[in-house]
UniProtKB/TrEMBL annotation:
GO terms of molecular function: aminoacyl-tRNA ligase activity
Name of protein: Histidine--tRNA ligase
Lineage start: Bacteria, Thermotogati, Deinococcota, Deinococci, Thermales
Organism (species): Thermus tengchongensis
InterPro entries: Anticodon-bd, Anticodon-bd_dom_sf
Pfam hit, one: HGTP_anticodon
Anticodon-binding domain boundaries: 2-85
SUPFAM superfamilies per record: Class II aaRS ABD-related
Amino acid sequence: LIPLTEEAVAETFYLAEVLRPRIRAEYALSPKKPGKGVEEALKRNAAFAGFLGEDELKTGEVTLKRLATGEQVRLPQGEALGFLLSALA
């Protein structure tokens, strides 16, 4: 999970803690540009990268990017775990 702004760092941590009981979830401790975040996720062999920025904070959503295809989906944070479990099955 990648915070795009300083304001998103705490929310990124909380979302990672929600996901961790069911899937492996890592998060950046400081804001990153999307490209740098994807680069780091690829180094870790992640299937998805999640982004939280200003817009996502306002709407309570997260943007998830499937790294193998580049496909992106934006959905409510509460639906992220179900989406990822289904996509990774």
